[in-house]
Amino acid sequence: MTSTVSQKSSYEPERMSLREKGALLVLCGAIFLEGLDIAMLNVALPHIRADLGLSTTTLSAVVSSYVIGYAGFMLLGGRICDLYGRRRVFLVALGVFAALSGLGGLATEGWMLLAARFIAGLSAAFMTPAGLSLITTNFPEGPRRNKAVLIYAGAASAGYSLGLVIGGLLTAISWRWVFFAPAILATSILLSALNLIADAHHPESRRTFDLPGALVLTAAMLAAATGIARLEHPEEFQAALVACAVSAALWVIFVLIERRRSEPLIRLGILSSGSLVRANLAMLLFGGSFFGFQFVVTLYLQELLGWTPLQTGLAMIVVSIDAILAPTLTPILVNRFGNVRVIVVGLTLAAIAYALFLRLGLDWTYAAMFPTMLMLGVGFALAYGPLTIVATNGVVENEQGLASSLVNTSFQFGAGLGLSAVGALAVLSLGGDGGVAARLEALRSAMLVPVATAAISAFVMIMPPPSIRADEAGRGGRWR
Questions:
Q1: Is 415 exposed, middle or buried, given 0-12, 13-18 or 19+ CB atoms closer than 10 A?
Q2: CA dist 384 to 158, 279, 285, 290, Å?
Q3: I need a surface site. Which of 277, 349, 358, 365 has the fewest CB within 10 A?
């Protein structure tokens, strides 16, 4: 299976109809909202910590609880889309997201915030695969679909980057508005979606789904994230090993469940596609590096340099260049060089960007940070959209919801693991010294996580897919 697009119509994809543009606008609005919701929270973390008195571990859990809930039920969300109709699931999930995303703004205790974020993640787990599968089923495979997916990916990354600035503005009023604002925006998108979204896909007649598999999968992810987070305290090393062992056992149980179910959460045969497996592994590592970096940067700028949330958001706004490059430059490069080459360049740029940030110091000016922000924006534009294309190309229509949810699950689960690893390494490096110099060194140590995961992600994409034989790699199979 090749992941490169046809050379036909390299620079001029077929034009979208007015209906397709309207639907794409609404779907992009929803994925923009999802990225916005996460990014705004990242900027507000120091203020939330100060107001609610949260530890570093709990603070990272505020973000990871959302993405673990998101990742754990994403596959079930994709399956529900195939069974009950993508439009119906999208509208219901968006409505639930609108109702629940604002609950975090009412939290007065850490556990209330964690619960609200986990539930909001559950609703996003149904909304996101529904949105992406609506695109992949409404646009035929080829130039138009590639353009739509890249625009969609650009909207997602724009939410992640512009959300930092918007979050800074709202946090200046009150950190609670970073929860209230997404609820208002979600309601507006829902009203527009009622008239603009259509679904040509006919739901399957057999409406069964694998709830036990979803519950075991979520538990496995939570146990893995918990085990990594507990490594921050040497005295809890044994508990960390137990949590990781429990996670490993749950993954085995999950596979056994899937093999015995007549309607599994994941049809294990879909994993025979080497390109799909490779893209999902790369996306998992990429998600961990990106979220881990944002967490470190937020604490560094606000707690060590004393920057305001607005200044923090503005410092990272250059990362939002990906929102411009993803729908404009990336399709040209993909048509010219193929998805995998473009992905490898993007991931390599991200790894270099993170490595440059290892030099962070108390006397740093924005000029010292700018190369990292710019390279990361370009790297995200080159990697995120093409990875999504590679992960969904060649998949039969009735499994597009599954393929879409798999790639999003990988990104979100990677984000949860990355946040846990960054938080644990920061606390572990800090030891008992709470001085500024020790905290700076702890953040430098934590930055090793984004550097390593981005570099490994690039290596994964360079290697030939598992389904390609060694003799094929020499004939260009590695770039498929």
A1: buried
A2: 12, 10, 12, 11
A3: 365
Q: Dihedral sign, CA of 328, 415, 282, 409?
A: negative
List domains and CATH numbers for the chain.
18-200+210-479 (1.20.1250.20)
**Is residue 402 within 8 Å of 264, Cβ to Cβ?**
no
End-to-end CA distance of the chain: 7
Residue type present at position 134: L
Q: What is the 3-state secondary structure (H, E, C) of 214-247?
A: HHHHHHHHHHHHHHHHHCCCHHHHHHHHHHHHHH
Give the residue carrying structure tokens 């390599």: 348
Give pLDDT tens digits along the chain (480 positions).
Answer: 434 444 444 444 467 677 778 888 889 999 898 888 888 888 888 888 888 888 777 777 787 788 778 877 877 887 788 778 888 889 989 988 888 777 888 888 888 888 888 888 888 888 887 887 788 777 777 777 777 877 887 787 778 767 878 888 898 888 889 888 988 999 899 988 888 777 666 565 556 677 788 889 888 888 887 788 777 666 677 888 898 899 999 999 999 998 888 778 788 887 777 788 899 999 999 999 998 998 899 889 988 899 988 888 888 888 888 878 888 899 899 989 999 999 999 999 999 999 999 988 898 999 999 999 999 999 998 998 899 888 877 777 667 667 777 887 888 888 888 888 888 888 777 665 567 888 898 899 999 999 999 999 999 999 876 654 433 333 333 333
pTM higher than 0.85: no
325 touches 361 (CB < 8 A): no
Helix (H) / strand (E) containing 198: none
Structure tokens at 389: 């294309």
d(CA 431, CA 233): 9
Residue type, 426: A
SS3 call for 266: coil
Q: SS3 for 131?
A: helix
